[in-house]
């Protein structure tokens, strides 16, 4: 009959090797990791099949730094812009314009129109020949075949009157326009001025307010997921909507739509008007006429959309 080990004998038994415990822990961790990866892959496949998303991506190199305008379109760029609404191939010419050709001296018997504006004029949502400057060019030449019209698209996303005036003064007048069309978007062109917090990195635009250590670490991951994961885009869009609806994220209400302007908004609007006046004077000094085209938001033109906008985004008692 076996006798039980004494306490002294038991205490002398070799302990379980630590390497064995580590291997067990790593094996379990690997199993959990594989399970998580398989689950994420299944979710990604499911979203791609059931609710495919427009991935958000801008090819590196679209923008370059500019000493006065902060940024401008890079020359001879070719790449893709993709958002939750569209995917478009975009090219620029050697003159930093969204054009398929370079423009030299104005040919005789040609009426040349230069169009300034922001993303509405740049029109990344559509091919270049479907942007409204090119549609205008086609319509003018069809309506008046005895004359030749050129309409040049000088739109840049995010630009406002200040940057447009600088561009006209430094580069635009070299194109010898007979007419300058300025598109003015009511939602933000009253406040879109040169922002020193904006900078160019790898041909993309960023702001210094985003440069916390956390942002620097997470930004590359976020950008990669936006450009590659349908599930990530789907979930972040739904999460943002829920946060807005339940008041867990600050509402953004266009300051131009408020009944009364605070001092900052009054100053911003006065500055925008001053830049527009300078732009007009710059054009007139070069014997070019100016037309300002006011572009409303969709919810300014459609009462039903306006009511939906107020219901979703506007804080209680805000705007109207």
Protein described:
The chain contains 10 helices and 11 strands. Helices cover 42% and strands 17% of the residues. With 320 residues, it is an alpha/beta fold. The longest helix has 33 residues, at 18-50. The model is unreliable at 316-320 (pLDDT under 50). The chain has a domain at 94-199 and 214-313: Rossmann fold (3-Layer(aba) Sandwich). It has helices at 7-11, 18-50, 119-122, 132-143, 161-170, 213-228, 230-245, 263-285, 298-301, 303-313, and strands spanning 57-58, 63-66, 70-73, 78-82, 87-91, 110-116, 148-153, 179-185, 198-201, 204-207, 289-295.
The N- to C-terminal Cα distance equals: 94 Å
Count all strands and give the number: 11
Q: What is the CATH C level class of the domain at 94-199 and 214-313, in words?
A: Alpha Beta
The coarse overall form would be elongated
Going by CATH, the architecture of the domain at 94-199 and 214-313 would be 3-Layer(aba) Sandwich
Compute the average pLDDT. 85
Number of helices: 10
N-to-C order of helices and strands: HHEEEEEEHHEHEEEHHHEHH
Radius of gyration: 29 Å
Strand content: 15-25%
SS class? alpha/beta
Strand order of the largest sheet: 7-6-8-11
